[in-house]
Design brief:
alpha/beta, FAD/NAD(P)-binding domain, 3 domains, seven-stranded mixed sheet, 19 strands, 45% helix, globular, binds flavin-adenine dinucleotide
Length: 468
C-alpha cells in the first residue's frame, strides 16, 4: 500500500475536520496550527476575533454524518435548535418567522466546543500528529516540503508530505504560495461594515429571550442579532458601517444612548454596564469576502474553507461550506479511486485527476454562496420587515408545503439541503421568474374579474332603473 502523507496547515474548524477525514481514509496526517492548543486554554471561547457561536446546518452536519463516527449526534447534543427568526421592533414587539414549512431548524453551537470536539476526534486516530504553536512560513509544493516556526521556542521545523492542505483561513499563507505557482484569479473585498459582540446573561437562571430563535433587530443600514448558548446566555452581534462605529467612541455613554434609541429591549436584557464595558473591551471585527480559483496545484496542494472562499457571515454558511468542501473532496477522491475506501491508495495520476475535478466543480458553488451571503445581509437588516418580502415568504412557504419537490424557498435550499450552491441560484432564479408570472396572472385575473363584476353590477343597476 502507498504510504501517503498529508500536511494540514490550520487547526481551525475546517483543518480539524480534514484531519479526521484523511485519517479515516488511511493517510498519515500532520496538522500544524499557529495558535496554542485551544483545549488547554482556560477561556477558549474567543477564537481570534471570530464569533463565539455559529449556526450549523445541513451541509455542515452532512459532512460530520459521513464520517460515521457519531460526531453529528454529539454535536446536536451540544447545540441549540433555532426554528426561525424572531424580529424585534424598536418598541419591543416580537414577530416570529419560521425558517421552514416542515419545521426544520438550524443549530447554534459554540465555536470552541466544535473545534475541541473535532481536535479530540482527529487526535484519537493513531496516524494523526498535531503540532500547535507552529506557524507556516514557506512551502515548496513540488518538493512536498513546508517550513514552520515554533511560535513559542522560535525553533524552525521542516515537514514533508505528498499533499499540502491549506485550511489556514481567510489570510491563508498556503493560498499566497499557491498564487506563486498557478495563474490564480483572486479578489478580496472588505465590506463597509464591521461587527462587535455583546453577551446577554441569563435572567434568573433562564434564557432572557426565546432560545428557539435567532433574534434580529433589523434597522435598515445596521442590525443586531443574537444566538443562544448552552449556558443560557445569548451572544449578540452588532453589525454596522464603520463610519457609524467611529461616531460611537468607547468609554462614554454614546453606546448606551445608541442602544436606547435602537435596541431598548436588548439594552434592558444585556444591562447598561455590560453594554458599555463590552463595547470598550471587545474587538471590532472587519468583514470581507474572497473569491479565487483554481484551488489546487498539480497533485501537490489544495486550499479549503475560508482560505478558498471567505464570505460575510450573513447566511451562516462559511463553516458549513468549508465542511462541505471536505466532504466534496472526499467524494471525488473515492470516485476516482473506484475501488475501496482508502484514498491513501490513490496513485499520483489519480490524485491529480481528483484535485483538478475538485477545483473545477467547487469554484462555481463557492462563488454562488459568497454572493448569496452578501445579498442576505440586505435581507436580514432591512427586507425582512417589508410587505413584499413577507408576502413572498408566506406564498413560497405555502407552495413548498403543497409541492415540496417543485417549489423550494431559497433559505431552505441553502440551509436544509445539499443542492450545490450554484444550482440553488439557478433554481431560485427560475422559480422567481415563474412566481412573478403567476402572481401577475393572478393579479390580472383578479383585475379582469373585478372589471367584469363592476360592469355587470352597473349593467344590472341600469336595468333596474330602466324597469323602475
Ligand atoms: P479559520 O476558522 O480561520 O481557521 C484557520 C486556522 O488556521 C486558525 O486556527 C489559524 O490560527 C490557523 N492559521 C492561520 N495561518 C496559519 C499559519 N500560517 N500556520 C499555521 N496555522 C495558521 N459560519 C457558519 O457556517 N455559520 C455561522 O453562523 C457563522 N457565523 C460567523 C460569524 C462571524 C462574526 C464570523 C466572522 C464568521 C462566521 N462564520 C460562520 C464563518 C466561519 O467562522 C468561518 O467560515 C470558519 O471559521 C472557517 O473555518 P476555517 O477553518 O476555514 O478558517
Amino acid at each position: 500500500m502507498t504510504e501517503r502523507c498529508v500536511v494540514i496547515i490550520g487547526g481551525g474548524l475546517v483543518g480539524s475536520l480534514s484531519a479526521c477525514y484523511f485519517a479515516k481514509r488511511g493517510w498519515t496526517v500532520k496538522l500544524y496550527e499557529k495558535r496554542s492548543d485551544i483545549r488547554l486554554a482556560e477561556h477558549g471561547h474567543l477564537v481570534e476575533h471570530r464569533s463565539i457561536n455559529l449556526a450549523i446546518s445541513e451541509r455542515g452536519l452532512s459532512a460530520l454524518r459521513r464520517l460515521d463516527l457519531g460526531l453529528e449526534r454529539r454535536i446536536r447534543g451540544l447545540a441549540i435548535p433555532m426554528r426561525g427568526r424572531m424580529l424585534h421592533t424598536v418598541h419591543g414587539r416580537q414577530t416570529s418567522q419560521a425558517y421552514d414549512a416542515f419545521g426544520r431548524h438550524i443549530n447554534s453551537i459554540g465555536r470552541s466546543t466544535l473545534i475541541r470536539l473535532l481536535l479530540d476526534e482527529a487526535e484519537s486516530h493513531k496516524q494523526v500528529s498535531m503540532h500547535f504553536s507552529h506557524e507556516l512560513i514557506s512551502a515548496d509544493f513540488d518538493a512536498g516540503r513546508v517550513a514552520l516556526k515554533n511560535t513559542e521556542s522560535g525553533e524552525h521545523v521542516t515537514a514533508h508530505a505528498d499533499l499540502v492542505v491549506g485550511a489556514d483561513g481567510a489570510y491563508s499563507r498556503v493560498r499566497q504560495r499557491l498564487m506563486g505557482k498557478v495563474a490564480m484569479n483572486y479578489s478580496q473585498t472588505y465590506i463597509e461594515h464591521g461587527y462587535c459582540e455583546f453577551s446577554m446573561p441569563p435572567r434568573n437562571g433562564a434564557f432572557a429571550m426565546d432560545p428557539s430563535h435567532l433574534h434580529i433587530w433589523p434597522r435598515g443600514s445596521f442590525m443586531l442579532i443574537a444566538l443562544p448558548n448552552l449556558d443560557r446566555s445569548f451572544t449578540c452581534t452588532l453589525f454596522m458601517p464603520w463610519r457609524q462605529f467611529d461616531t460611537i467612541k468607547p468609554g462614554d455613554d454614546a453606546i448606551v444612548a445608541f442602544f436606547k434609541a435602537h435596541f431598548p429591549d436588548a439594552l434592558e436584557l444585556i444591562g447598561e454596564l455590560h453594554v458599555r464595558a463590552e463595547y470598550e473591551a471587545n474587538p471590532k471585527g472587519s468583514l470581507m469576502y474572497i473569491k479565487c480559483s483554481p484551488y489546487t496545484y498539480k497533485n501537490k496542494a489544495i486550499i479549503l474553507g475560508d482560505a478558498a472562499h471567505a464570505m460575510v457571515p450573513f447566511y451562516g454558511q462559511g463553516m458549513n461550506c468549508g465542511f462541505e468542501d471536505v466532504e466534496f473532496l472526499d467524494r471525488i477522491m473515492l470516485k476516482v479511486l473506484g475501488d475501496g475506501e482508502q484514498t491513501a491508495m490513490l496513485t499520483d495520476a489519480q490524485l491529480l485527476c481528483a484535485l483538478d475535478e475538485y477545483s473545477a466543480t467547487r469554484a462555481p458553488d463557492a462563488s454562488a454562496i459568497v454572493n448569496l451571503a452578501l445579498d442576505n445581509y440586505v435581507e436580514m437588516r432591512s427586507k425582512v420587515v417589508g410587505y413584499a418580502y413577507i408576502f413572498r415568504k408566506h406564498l413560497e412557504g405555502l407552495l413548498h408545503w403543497l409541492f415540496p419537490r417543485h417549489v423550494i424557498p431559497l433559505y431552505t435550499m441553502v440551509s436544509f439541503t445539499s443542492i450545490p450552491y450554484a444550482t440553488v441560484v439557478e433554481k431560485w432564479n427560475r422559480q422567481t421568474i415563474w412566481l412573478h408570472r403567476a402572481i401577475s396572472a393572478i393579479v390580472a385575473a383578479v383585475g379582469i374579474g373585478a372589471v367584469i363584476t363592476a360592469v355587470r353590477l352597473l349593467g344590472s343597476r341600469r336595468l333596474v332603473s330602466a324597469v323602475a
